[in-house]
Amino acid sequence: MGGIEGFEAPVRTRLIVRDTRPDDLSWSEVGEMAYGYLRIPFALVFVEIVYWWATDPAATIEPYQSLLATIWVGISNILWPGSAELVFHGPSQALTGVNLFGDNFQGGMERLYVSDECSGMHEIVFLGVLMLLTPGVDNKIRFRSIGYMAILVQSLNLVRLLCLYPIAEHSGVDKMFAFHEFILSSGFLVILVLIWLCWYVYLDRCGLVDHAQKPSLKDLERFRKLELRTTLPRTSLATILFCLLVASWATYEVSYNEENLQFRGAAESCTYDDQLDAWTDSTGANCFAKKKIWDDIERRSSRGWLFSALFIGISVIQFANDESDESE
Q: What Cα–Cα distance (Å) separates residue 40 from each residue in 35, 46, 219, 286?
């Protein structure tokens, strides 16, 4: 019998190719994206915390509050003669109180005052941070814009204060306070964002925004290359002069102001009485109010010294590769 010849079955092979391509996003790229998107929100939160700490003592920016109250009363009396009066307010008896007179006020008068939240400083800080962190804008344009925007914000804030009187006269006191609360809580925030957007769009249309410049983690390496300025531009000199004035004012408040020294003496003799559950002086009188006033004065001065030293330090240093503009 003849044998049956075998046959060789075809062998199928499967080629396995390992994908050696890198992932879509590396961790460094994720970090770059996170830095680009989150640096502004984190900076705003950080500055917000610093601002609230700086203004925690009562009447932290009292001189400016008094100036704003004086301007408010002056313009109000020009527009509506006899509508406002500048008065002393608070334990420090600073000229930050404003009395409005009108038929819709209970007793013909409404007592108001200019607090640190009414000063517009909070809004300037917020808008300034947005402008400082906007990429692609030249620093000269950036700082000049912040100055102009500060004037604009303060003008809008003054208009807000001036609007309180006619609103109360035509719509009532409740409407006046509702308008005031709305602007402070959310209205001004919307206005600030619109100002920032208009500013950026304007610069972009004028070709003043470098779109190739994007925020990067490598930017942080510049802080390792700080050096003292060999010469000081005018902006640094102006900043140093202003800081010295603030530091001098802070020193005067705790060392030479006779009224404040009286509060200091009262605070030093003020002790807590467990039996009365109150702060009392050597005569047994309640001294908590005077003690709190001195604590605010002391904390306000310490913040003045701290921020003066900080901004003087910033004014005398620069990045190693930056060229100082002597005329700036």
A: 9, 10, 14, 47
pTM of the model: 0.78
Does an H or E element contain 262, and which? Answer: helix 258-268
User: What is the span of the domain harbouring residue 300?
Assistant: 225-328
Contact 216, 32 (CB under 8 A): yes
Phi, psi of 151, rounded to the nearest 5 degrees: -65, -40
What is the distance, to the nearest Å, from the Cα of residue 165 to the centroid of all Cα atoms in its chain? 28
On whether residue 86 sits in a domain, the answer given is no
Cβ count near 262 (within 10 Å): 13
Residue 85 burial by CB count (10 A; 0-12/13-18/19+): exposed, middle or buried?
middle
Quick one: CA dihedral 226, 227, 231, 236, positive or negative? positive
Where b means 16+ CB within 10 Å and e means fewer, 280-302 reads bbeeeeebeebbbbbebbbbbbe
Report the pLDDT value the prediction gives residue 196, as an integer from 0 to 100. Answer: 94
Domain count, the chain: 1
Q: How far apart are alpha carbons 124 and 154 in whole angstroms?
A: 8
Is 267 among the domain residues?
Answer: yes
278-280 and 317-319 beta bridge pairing: unpaired
Which one is predicted more confidently, 1 or 277? 277
pLDDT tens-digit series, residues 185-231 = 888 889 999 999 999 999 999 999 988 888 777 777 777 888 888 89
Query: Which pLDDT band, with edges at 50, 70 and 90, does 252 fall under?
Result: very high
Query: Would 30 be classed as within a structural domain?
Result: no
- The answer as to whether 168 is a domain residue is no
